Each structure stands twice: as C-alpha cells, then as structure tokens.
TrEMBL record:
Bilayer-crossing regions: 7-28, 40-59, 79-99, 105-126, 138-160, 172-194
Keyword terms, alphabetized: Membrane, Transmembrane, Transmembrane helix
Keyword Protein transport tagged: no
Protein's recorded name: Phosphatase PAP2 family protein
Length: 196
C-alpha cells in the first residue's frame, strides 16, 4: 500500500461522521454547561446516540450481510441504515429534551436528524458524500453557536475531499454536494428553530 493511500485511509477514518459527532457534542456540552461533571454527562448522552449506537448498528448490519461493508460503499444499501441511524438520533433528541438539555445540544441533534434523513433519501438514487456532510454540518454549528474562528475547520473539507477522491469513494460533485447541503441545512435548522 502506498503512503498516499495509507494517509487517505487514515484521514477518512478519523473524519468519519461518528467520530466528528463525538467531538461536536463534547465541545458544545463543555461550552454551555457547568459544572464540568454536568457537561460530561450530557456529552456521554450525545456520544451514546450519535457515535456509539450508530457505529455498532452499521457493524452489526455488515456482520449479518445486510450491507457489504461498514463504510456503506454502495448508495442503494444506505437507505435502511441511514433511516435507522436517524431513528437513533431522534431517540437521542427525545432523551436530551426530557433531560432539559441546553438549546444548542438540541439544535445539533436536530441537524443530525435532518441531514441524515435527507441523505437517506438522496441515497436511493445517488451516492452523496455523507463523510463530507459529517464535517461541514458540525463546523457550521460550531461557527453558529460559538465563534467565527471555528470556520478554520472548514479546511478539513479539502483534506477529507482529497482522501475520498483518492480512494475513489466519491466524485467531485458528490463531495461538493455533501458539503454544501449539510452546511446550508445545518444553518437553516439552527437559525429557524434553535437560536441561542
């Protein structure tokens, strides 16, 4: 395996949506909650519903042969997994709502529900890049809720876009579409319903 291919695989693995979700819930929890023990508790709830359970779900589906690979390489096999993951996000939203979580935590969870649901339906006919969507949306949420300086993380889109292109997982249009629709949808959801 060439060095470039190894690098592309590492970038693709580190910036997969479930890992980015763990980071996002951590930053938002510790930015809006005090004391740190309370922030940790809410981060764990977010981690459970946005990282751990979706990851275990896709692994289980792959083990049972329902999908060919945990990376969901074929767009037609993405619909059911994405709908199930959307249901997990919805359950997480309900738990956070019942726990009276801060509005920003509810907002980012609503964005995960919306973006993943739309991604599921797009996958019926096209393989949009949910890897890129999984970075563009969270960075948009950080910029919206915390500070414009978080926009520097949009640079990760170029790095991840290169990795996905190099590994032949997506074409340029799928990468651009995943980035744009997630960023715009995230901004729209937060601005219309989950302002600070």
């Amino acid at each position: 395996m060439q060095k470039s291919e190894r690098l592309a695989k590492v970038i693709s693995a580190l910036l997969q949506p479930t890992f980015v979700a763990a980071f996002l819930y951590g930053v938002v929890s510790f930015s809006f909650l005090q004391p740190p023990s309370k922030a940790l508790f809410y981060w764990l709830v977010g981690f459970l519903f946005a990282t751990l359970l979706p990851t275990l779900l896709v692994i289980k589906l792959a083990q049972k042969g329902r999908v060919s690979d945990p990376d969901l390489p074929h767009h037609r096999e993405r619909f059911i997994p994405y709908l199930l993951i959307t249901a997990l996000y919805a359950a997480g939203f309900l738990v956070l709502y019942l726990l009276k979580a801060p509005r920003p935590l509810l907002g980012i969870t609503a964005c995960y529900i919306g973006v993943t649901a739309v991604g599921a339906f797009i996958s019926l006919f096209w393989k949009i890049s949910m890897h890129l969507a999984g970075v563009a949306g969270p960075v948009t949420a950080l910029v919206y809720y915390l500070n414009p300086s978080w926009a520097l993380l949009y640079a990760l889109l170029f790095l991840l876009g290169w990795a996905r292109l190099y590994l032949k997982k997506h074409n340029l249009y799928q990468i651009l579409a995943g980035s744009a629709f997630s960023a715009l949808m995230t901004y729209g959801i937060l601005h219309l319903w989950f302002q600070k």
